[in-house]
Write a structure and sequence with these properties.
Layout: H1 3-11, H2 26-38, H3 46-58, E1 62-66, H4 69-79, E2 87-91, H5 97-104, E3 108-112, H6 122-128, E4 133-139, H7 148-157, E5 161-165, E6 173-174, E7 177-178, E8 185-189, E9 202-206, H8 209-216, H9 225-240, H10 242-255, H11 270-301, E10 307-308, E11 320-324, H12 332-341, E12 347-348, H13 353-356, H14 366-371, E13 375-379, H15 405-409
Parallel strand pairs: 2-3, 2-4, 4-5, 5-8
Antiparallel strand pairs: 1-9, 6-7, 8-9, 10-11, 11-13, 12-13
Helix pairs in contact: 2-11, 3-11, 4-5, 4-8, 9-10
Length: 414
Amino acid sequence: MSIVGKLRRLRSYWFQVPWCVPPWGWKEFRTAAGCLLRGAVVHGRDGERFESRVREVVGRRFAIPVGRGRDALWLALRALELGPEDEVVMPAYVCASVPEAVRMAGARPVWADVNDRLVVTLDAIRAAMTPRTRCAIVPHLFGNAAEVEAIEPFLQARGVALIDDAAQAFGMRRAGRPLGSFGQFGVVCGGPGKPLVTPAGGVLLMDDPELYRRAAGIPLAPARAGYAVRRVLGFWFWRRWRRYTVVLEAVQEWLWPPTETSPPPGAPANLDAALLCRQLESYEANGRRRQVRAARLRALLDPLHWREVSDAAQDAAPLKLVLLLPEEGPAMAEALGAFAAAGVECQPGYTPCHLKEKCEDPHPLPFTDRTWARVLCVPLDTDVRNPRRLERLAACRRGAGAVPERDAADTHSR
């Protein structure tokens, strides 16, 4: 291949709209630098500030800061004193950290189906429950709110606890109440692709004094200064500047394949809490910007006639534009390649937990099984600067042929 050809191929890694770029700027830089200069990486007052502000927004009496959303779920399940014979119902279509928290707490996850908005329903929870069910976790994926206002009284009448997981829907409301305020516990945390965009940090929320006493008495591993600093620097380099570092990431993964590590449940570093406090000041403005970008993308992608899964309501706060590919095609690899050729780095959705793990007598999950492989997520963190490039997506119209081989192969860094 000629030098010109190699440069053109290398250019295909530089996405106009990279995946999951945090809306960080000088304010976040000053916040992080201030913690470093003051020696407030691990200890400081920012944890209390974040806890107080989240309690105010969600409307809960008590809060316990944690290192990750997984840690908040683990802490809630430990406070409920679940054992090996106890079951926790949750959607199979969910982040793997949710069942990980359940198993860490010593309980058994049980899978429930999702609806056409990829969130669990009351009927699905009812169908998955057994006499051993002690708790249900209701996540609001991609900013789509589940019918938690109907699930709460149903579980309450049966003595089953509810964890309202608002990690991907902080600031949204359902039936006039903030998400995270339903059930015995609420979970709010930061992370890439969440309303509060930070490397780590979160909080477990509750109203019951006895549950708070139990949860507060469970020890958490202390935060480590070096690990917290490296995590934030990595977030800046690999996430914030992804448009320029995605090539390096592809090379790094090829030379040094990543190894999965699962640190023990821990307390947040003050540095994480300080960045979360900064995000609390801007999450509403960031949400409005994503709404505008989502509307533009809807108009550009309308000729494809793909069904949108994201909540398109005016007061919704979509994290990504989530689309469902038609059953007759295109295939996921074809769609990802066409978007990549147009300069947009997309990703498929989750692989359902019941397909990744061995299950005993798995509950039928018809909608999840026939849908999950067709879920396509389009980023809204960066605006499309050259809409004409999206015209190449015409190759993905229903019944059209495949995209050119080079474009279909350029699906890097998934």
